[in-house]
Write a structure and sequence with these properties.
By secondary structure, this protein is α/β, with parallel strands linked by helices. The chain has six helices and eleven strands. It has helices at about 5, 20-35, 75-80, 100-115, 180-195, 210-220, and strands at about 10-15, 40-50, 65-70, 85-90, 130, 130-135, 155-160, 170-175, 195-200, 205, 225. A six-stranded mixed β-sheet has the order 2-1-3-4-6-5, sandwiched between helices. Helix 2 runs parallel beside helix 4. The longest helix has 18 residues, at about 20-35. Mean pLDDT is about 75; it is low at about 1-10, about 115-135 and about 135-150.
């Protein structure tokens, strides 16, 4: 058994990413669930590299995984090179929802803790820059069935004009996120739509009829969308 697993004390995994509160929730829950199912004693910390880059030395961590867009992978490979083989840079396609590719890659990462090598069937391409491992993630085709869709991640999207002097807004409700994550999602959607908006009582309002664009952006983030109204 790997020395990493043989230790009885809790070990620290730092995951560095760029996705804000939404990605933080997905990443932490995915790693924690996968490690916990095997009884592995690891603490998972997510660092938002858009907010705090300088502090992320990784010196306190036993392992470091950097989730970087493809165009930033080379930079981060060089940045974490002092960490040696305990650091990996996963180069992700920003057009693919992170939920689609994260779980299988986490399982492969855990399998490597046991063997010290990448298991057969890994989707990584053979790109190794010593001493930092760089993984270019290419997701395998996913067969989606009705039973496999995440029921808890459905968001309702509609439109309201009543009492708004003819100026309608696109509304999002039944959002399965906490207050901080809803605010983060609202900010992202306002930027994508190039317009204003607000958060009220756990619901998001985006100015104008932005339903088509918002549905597309939510689907990219891995949410199911229920359209309501006309």
């Amino acid at each position: 058994m790997s020395k990493v697993l043989a230790a009885s004390s809790t070990r620290l995994l730092q995951v560095w990413g760029f996705g804000g509160a939404l990605e933080k929730s997905i990443v932490e829950s995915t790693f924690v669930m996968a490690l916990g199912m095997l009884g592995l004693r690891w603490k998972v910390q997510y660092w938002d590299l858009e907010k705090d880059i300088i502090a992320q030395t990784g010196a306190a961590a036993d392992k470091v995984v950097v989730l970087a867009p493809k165009d930033k992978a080379t930079f981060w490979c060089e940045a974490v090179s002092p960490l040696g083989s305990k650091a990996e840079v996963w180069a992700l396609d920003p057009c693919v929802p992170i939920q689609q590719i994260l779980s299988p890659e986490v399982n492969r990462w855990i399998a490597k803790l046991f063997t010290g090598e990448h298991p057969k069937g890994t989707s990584e391409q053979a790109i190794i820059v010593h001493p930092v491992i760089v993984k270019v993630i290419t997701p395998s085709p996913v067969i989606v069935t009705k039973a496999s869709l995440p029921k808890a991640k459905k968001i309702s999207v509609g439109r309201e004009t009543k009492g708004r002097a003819g100026k309608g807004v696109t509304t999002l409700f039944d959002i399965p996120l906490n207050a901080e994550q809803i605010k983060e999602l609202a900010t992202t959607l306002k930027q994508k739509c190039g317009t204003g908006g607000t958060v009220k009582d756990g619901c998001i309002e985006i100015q104008g009829d932005q339903r088509e664009r918002i549905v597309l952006e939510l689907q990219k983030l891995g949410f199911q969308v229920k359209r309501v109204g006309g």
